[in-house]
Q: What sequence folds into this?
């Protein structure tokens, strides 16, 4: 099993360009999440999904959109990239919403630089 | 003020030493406490989970929660170079609430 797979792993964008990050999980998890990780800030939740066809905002959703057309995939889009969106993006999944053990399964991250 | 505070380090100790990693928090409503380990260029993975106060031991790792002081710790005994990673504390108010992550402490174990 691959677990949670993110593509691409690295990307450099110019300000104003758009792009989509793809997350795929093969664990049949209902819940999927997008986080960003910045130095000194910890992991911050951008958007999450509680099932196919549903999405919800996290704590830092501005400038991002998401879609969950298939249960195994969760896409994160940047319509007009800004330098403030330079970060490492992590996708995660869980079998239930914030399960009792607090266990999320993370991908390896996508490093995005916006010039 | 951040809800969860964690010293970013880096912390460098010799192999075999006992390591103590700590987090403080401001909201006494937190009940679930976790430690995630994140190797360089990888995603975090759950290392330890504790509910409410007390200690939990798993091999060389011990997680300790002191709710009266709003302080949690992770102890690593007989530290190994393979323990070199960033350690993130995390907390939840309840089993269905969002997870609040600390910013992580970078640990290096010198052979």
A:
């Amino acid at each position: 099993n691959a677990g949670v797979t993110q593509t691409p792993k690295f990307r450099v964008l110019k300000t104003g360009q758009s792009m989509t990050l793809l997350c795929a999980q093969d664990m049949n998890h209902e819940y999927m999440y997008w986080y960003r990780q910045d130095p000194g800030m910890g992991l911050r939740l951008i958007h999450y999904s509680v099932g196919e066809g549903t999405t919800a905002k996290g704590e830092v959703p501005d400038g991002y959109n998401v879609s969950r057309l298939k249960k195994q995939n969760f896409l994160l889009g940047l319509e007009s990239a800004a330098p403030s969106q330079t970060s490492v993006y992590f996708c995660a999944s869980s079998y239930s919403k914030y399960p009792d053990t607090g266990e999320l399964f993370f991908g390896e991250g996508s490093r995005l630089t916006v010039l | 003020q951040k809800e969860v505070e964690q010293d970013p380090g880096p912390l460098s100790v010799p192999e075999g030493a006992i390591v103590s990693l700590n987090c403080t928090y401001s909201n006494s409503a937190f009940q679930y406490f976790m430690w995630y380990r994140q190797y360089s260029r990888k995603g975090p993975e759950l290392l330890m989970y504790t509910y409410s106060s007390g200690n939990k031991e798993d091999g060389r790792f011990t997680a300790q929660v002191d709710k009266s002081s709003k302080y949690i710790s992770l102890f690593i005994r007989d530290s190994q170079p393979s323990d070199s990673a960033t350690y993130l504390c995390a907390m939840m108010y309840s089993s269905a609430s969002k997870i609040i992550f600390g910013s992580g402490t970078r640990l290096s174990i010198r052979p």
